[in-house]
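To assess whether the prediction recovers the assembly geometry, we first specified each molecular entity separately, as shown.
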Amino acid sequence: MRSQYIPVLIQLALAAGFAGSLLVLTHLFGPSRPAAAKLSPFECGVDPVDQAHHRFSVKFYLVAMLFILFDIEAIFFYPWALIFKGAISSGLFLLIEMGTFALVLLAGFFYIWRKGVLEWA
Amino acid sequence: MNFETAVANLGFRDLAGISPALNLILAGIAILALDAILPMRSKLLSAWIALLALAGSLFASLHRLAVGADISAFNHAVRMDPFANAFSAIICLASTLAVLSAPKYLKLREVHLAEYYALILFSVSGMVLFGASQDLLMMFLALETMSIPVYCLVGFTRTNVYSTEASMKYFLIGAFAAGFLVYGIALLYGAAGTVRIEDLAVGLDRAPGLFYSGMALLLVGFLFKIGAVPFHMWTPDAYEGAPTPVTTFMAEAVKAAPFGGMLKVLFVGFGFEEAMQVWQPVLIGIAVLTMTVGNLIALVQDDVKRMMGYSSIAHSGYILVGVAAAAELHSTDALAAVLYYLFIYVLMNAGTFGVLILFSSKDKDANHLDDLVGLGRERPWAAALMTVFLLSLTGIPPLGGFFGKFYIFSYAIQAGMIPLVVIAILNSVVSAYYYLKVIGAMYFREPEDGARAVFYFEGYSVFLIAMLWLSAAGVVYWGIQSETPLLLAEQATASLFKPAP
Amino acid sequence: MVVLRFLILAPLAAALLNLFFGRWWGKKTTAALACGSVFLSFCGALRNAYAIQIHSLPAQRVIVDEIFTWIAVGRTVIRMDLVQDNLTCVMCLIITGVGFLIHLYSVGYMAHDGGFRRYFIYLNLFVFFMLLLVLADNLLVLFIGWEGVGLCSYLLIGFWHADMKNASAGKKAFVVNRIGDFGFLLGMLVILLTAGTLSVTELKSAVALQPIASGTATLICLLLFLGAAGKSAQIPLYTWLPDAMAGPTPVSALIHAATMVTAGVYMIARLHFLYALSPLASGVVAAVGAATAIFAAVIGLAQNDIKKVLAYSTVSQLGYMFLAVGVGAYTWGIFHLTTHAFFKALLFLGAGSVIHGLSGEQNLQKMGGLRKHLPVTFVTMLAGTLAIAGVPPLAGFFSKDEILVAARLAEPAVWSGRVLSGIGLAAAFLTAFYMGRLLCLAFFGSSRVEKEKAAHLHESPWTMTVPLMILAILSAIAGFGHHHFSEWLAPLFGHAAPTPADIHDRVMWASVAVALAGLGLSALFYIRSPGIPARIAAGLGGLYRLVADKFYVDELYDRMAVKAVYWTGVLSHAFDKHVIDRLVNWTGGSLRAGGFVISFLQTGNVGHYAIWFLAGVSALLVLFTGGAP
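The predicted structure of the complete assembly is given in tokenized form:
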């Protein structure tokens, strides 16, 4: 019963090891040129301790919203792949349908790209 | 049915089944793509694409309605029966009128963007599926697809504070209402163990408390959408703040669509005797409140757009009278009268807002009564059209508005609801006051400073003129010739009570 | 055959086209559209008449066009159906045929008028409504046409509305007609209550199955007759027609002579099966008809306005038609309607031609000797005069003769047949006299035309004279068709009973004699020794003034009805102002105050909205779960 969680543990260990080793390695080999922005905890240009009524670029919202949208839509692929595994073999239709879904996503991506949402300047 | 078989059942015929909605979504995506590729030339082209798509869906729905097609799709989650097709036709017609009214106004306001048409199309696709949903989750999905673009549309003139304020308010209250709706769905699922609308009845025996609470909360979601008292507060604010073409869209399409879902839930889900005895009297009470509050507040408005907001609340009340009568009589013909009313309501409302758009200028809407003074002399055609729409809203024969009310009230009398009809007629009388006030401003008032007239006119657009004349012709023609629409509506409502194929 | 809806829609389409696009095209296109559409309807009506003619089975001799159900509530179904049978064929042909000629004539007559387009829009609209009136199967639809022609008549009487007099003449016509319409509406209501239907076809079969009680039938028929008397200018509602002459002359010809004013006669003929049930109502119709015939003829004797003479003549001739339908001679009523449409349209158009030639002069005393200057007008008007006077073998002789014979043989409930035919004969004599007088004063003798008007004196253009000639030919020969005519209408009204030859001959000779006597006397008075009329008028003194001033009926109505109504108005105004107004203001005020108070709840604060929303949710929850155990 417990043995089925062992892969999860291994996955956890791998992830922690990978992240930890990367941190250690960059610290050892990377050049160190500290700056105020770089030293801030989230390194995204927003001061974590500040007035609430501070104005900042609306681009943050756009990026955040887009991230959530695409993230959720990407997550949609997983259940599709898992639950419909048995049904995929039964017909081309499901494949086409997921293709259409991806196409719609791509159309949205194309739209925001052309609209200049991704340009930071 | 397990997932594998359910999934294996899906096929192209499911997509073909919802083609009226699918067509709109594809057109919306096409508009976005076009705007991305050719940002300079996409505006009018998008309007044409939207019109074509809407016309396609309109004719597809009408054709299916005429031949009586009844298609179940997506494992019975969606059913494009005559009922859904009738609503789809009404909504597509309404949206066509709203799209026609838009280009001139948006150009004046310098927000003529292709996104407008895409948003409208996405919203309409949700509306089309709304009346077609056979289970509550699908219905919620359709409702949100319908609502979210509208929140954006209300705030479409981004630099206008009223517009953004209206959008924010509408969004907040809308989210609030959606929350109740989902909660209601959850409670009903808890009671009945299913979200299929036609199987909800089993919940009553299992857990009556849950069932009735769920029913109440579900109903709240719908009553919010149609602007029934006391869930109406957002209506005037949103109507007034939104750009007028969006107000047009809201007052007709966004108004008519929720009735589709509501009728389906009330008459299919809660259409059995015990439940009906609970919701029907409540509906009567809400109808009385809605009519009265709407009309009374409309009396003291000087802003025509805001007045029309309250007037739309009052009209929801009249329609609820029809719904209550249909419940009392168990009559599909009475429901058909409701559909006919919605159809006519779409036309006359669209026309009224269309005239307001005609006289809106670059920085000011022709909203106030004073803005219309002298129209009768200087712009006789526009004033005449406005008069037709307002008289129809008042319910003067032989215009459509009269027959709409006439059929609804006569069914209510058949149902023995005489006091309700008396209240409704008194309300109509009150409403005559503020509709005629507009006519009075157009014809009988003189501008104070000795000028010929006080209105703005910055050229017309062919789209807008077409919209005005189409609506007026519809109000007159389908008023006198109410046989065909009523016949179609009767087919539509009859299908509501037939089991799905 | 031609589907009936296209028959009536052609003039409507032309009116709408001219209304919407007329400003972009010239007078020629406007006129061509207007005339063409009516001609198209005429061809359609002709084709339908032929289609009816070639079918021998009675069931097939009706063309039905079921358009749609207009209103359906419970048992009451109002269908928008059109029906053409033998009777409506006649009416359609008159309306479109004579209508077309008058349209054509108007092109010339109105050529220089600023309201050219407006005129033709009204006229086409009139033809549409008139056809709707005639073809409607349902009385309610008929009533739409009935009101529609009234509206067009109102608009056309007041066509030159810049002149207050014309506008008030239009208003008078409208108001007097309302009184009649009130009766008509009540009549329809009683029909609906008794028979449950307003469809003439259904009503007819219902009555055939189970006759309506004679008391109810009398009530219905009298109420409907009130409507007919209003529209067709019978005593006591005739006063609007002479004033209606304020409109353009072709309008007087079309609306106030040939078509609209005969709608009352048509309606009674259409509902003859109801009138057959009520001898009393029929008797009243006949008596009123006869009285109107003589009364209007007497007034016509002393009028000096050429159009007024013709107007009273119209009222008088309409009296004949009512006399005919009142004594059950529906065929001859309709026949007289037809011939009258020809010769009275002709006379009006001729008078129009005279007025046109004389630059607007209408006073007979300022005419004279015109026959040399207006030869075509003179010859055609002569034909019309002989026809209306009843000189054989022109049309009026046959139709009037048949009516008088029918009246002589009838046994009506009010007055006796002898009296009625006697009155008819006397009226015929007067008709011949005043028409002769009109002709003599206008065309014979020495010219009394004012100088500057004499200079412009000219015969009218061909668009005006051609209709005159066609109508003159019709007035001359239409009478010969009277046997065919009665055969044509026999499916509806039955075959005429053979009349005793001696009575027929006696009446015929008498009517010829009075016609010739009237004409001869007028020639004597107004050509041979023009002094006589003045001496007679002086000798009669007050009596003459009484006739010339139309028996002071207008003044009487003014005193009795209008003044009474006026004072009632003043009183009710006071009541209105001090009682009703206050009530209304109070109600309105309190409603507004209520609205004002409630509108305070609309604070604009989203938080408050949410609180109201929550209150609503709680209320619903309590109400709903209260129902559950």
